[in-house]
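Tokens for ubiquitinyl hydrolase 1. Go.
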Amino acid sequence: FQSLFNLLEFRRLVLNFNPPANAQDLPRNQKEHRNLPFMRELRYLFALLVGSKRKYVDPSRAVEILKDAFKSNDSQQQDVSEFTHKLLDWLEDAFQIKAEEERDGEKPKNPMVELFYGRFLAVGVLEGKKFENTEMFGQYPLQVNGFKDLHECLEAAMIEGEIESLHSENSAKSGQEHWFTELPPVLTFELSRFEFNQALGRPEKIHNKLEFPPILYLDRYMHKNREITRIKRDEIKRLKEYLTVLQQRLERYLSYGSGPKRFPLVDVLQYALEFASSKPVCTSPVDDLGASAPASGTLPPQIPPSTIEQQGPSSSDVPSTSPVQRSVIHKPFTQSRIPPDLPMHPAPRHITEEELSVLEGCLHRWRTEVENDTRDLQESISRIHRTIELMYSDKTMVQVPYRLHAVLVHEGQANAGHYWAYIYDHHQNRWMKYNDISVTKSTWEELERDSFGGYRNASAYCLMYINDKEQYLIQEEFNKETGQMLVGMDTLPSDLRDYVKEDNKRFEKELEEWDAELAQKAQQEKLLSQIPRAPAPSPAPVQAGEPEYLEQPSRTDISKHLKEDSVQAINKALAEQEDRGPEAIMDTVAFKMLMIDCTLLHYLKGNRTLRNVLNICAFLSAIKLEYTRLLKLAQEDPPPECDYRLRHAIVYFIQNQAPKKIIERTLLEQFGDHNLSFDERCRNIMKVAQAKLEMIKPDEVNMEEYERWHQDYRHFRETTMFLMVGLEFFQKK
């Protein structure tokens, strides 16, 4: 809806749609019964989008009418592409009714058809027989899997089967080409990002990256350009075949060898050159061992191995040691033949200066040749890529430009997710992000990241392009008499202008009622604050510099002092935890409660860290501390100037003997309140409470009874408040 609303021509068509003059006689059939109410609601919706003073408008009434069309026998919801198809069908039907009424013997023109529908010519061969068919299309479906950009998707969609058979006289092969004969001003591509997994028996989302340009030239797909396109396709095919050969050759240079480990050939030659140039530095195995042996077993390095073999160890050279020490150093070499001298580093054993000179010259030359060959191959590959990219950039192939107008994005998997849209503001020349009631400025870089896919689970499923030469699609409306541009309410027909004015009046009244209600609440809170409260320990001070957070309404009407009570209980529980240490906690009542609490163990499933165990123990301790405090208040006799029931619903519940499950859930909602998310320690406890709430089964707590108890408590507080306010007014006469 938002993508279409921002097409000014489409907006004008919807806003200026007038039901047929004989509408009072309708419905004559089911289509009219359905489409005319839908158009009425769509006009109201668009009018509110133009002139409402509200931050956002509710599209439910228009959507509810549409939604009925999607209910199949088993009441399963259809996907979003089906929704768009149905939307365009209904728009076409509604405008067709009007067009037929206004025709003067001529074939009626349907503006929706002219705006969104095009035609293509299917030329092909079926079992050796040639055929040609002209077909109309609205949304053009494109496969995503296996393609890297939009042009590759389009090329694959325009050719089916064996393309060569189309140009041969005698062929039994089948195939066809599609050529656009007429493109619509608004061209919508439906990207097929879902496929059915036969093995798993369920649909899956395709997260592959697919690039698309802000300006799309469609000349190569036009029927009038088919001959030159075929020539270019053949040339691209030839270049890609040559490119494959060059890439294979380059791969041999960059990954040389036949084993599992491969290296660039230029590096292999460099290693060979370094090996050939290395000088052998010989050493004996005994020397190697002696260098690392203990000091008591070290041999003098100046004694050659042959001397050791002939003379054996002398008492002057080797200190008198135990047989074990002597065997560690000498036994392996005295009982076996000493190997020849080994170089410390790999190096040629025997090579003459002349041989080395020839070999170094060859290796240097070969390395240079390989470097040059590699560079030439890389440059050739880059040139071919560039040639392919520029194949359709000549003047004859950039005459049909389409500008990207909107990108519809889905984040999630095949069975669930979230939708939003990027829509181009053609007058401010910037992208806007439409995400539910939030509309924010955006950039092409953000659009790329969210829409191309491959980065996370978000990707585009629908692209809306508009003919860049058809400026009427996005052109503002001007007053015919003054020539001034019409904006806002001035663009609306009189009936819609009145409708929006009435809605704005209702909104202003809602604001007044809201302000009055806030003022009354402020007055009531002021009076309540004057009621003395029993002294309570002040909550832990919030450190300066912590970020502010928004107060959010909660089911238990948690007030400021109630939040302070929760924070106080949490801090006390955490302080006790820190004093005891992790080991002592294992012996606490809270830990034993955790061990028998299947719900919280389920919460820990897959994440059973000590930190989470401690969080849950702190949560259980905080719950126990808070309940103990409230139970004590409920059992005490309050002073004449104080009523503990006004302090907390649970005090009221205990005194009125509410069921245990009602009290437990109320405590959980107190600690699961979002307003506790201002601090990391409180947030951890809040998450545990929320997890516990989620695990409560419907049959465990009667929610109607739960709501009744809380309604009773609200009535009790309101009655007390009215009594206090009334007495205040009475005293002031």
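Residues 353-389 form the longest helix (37 residues).
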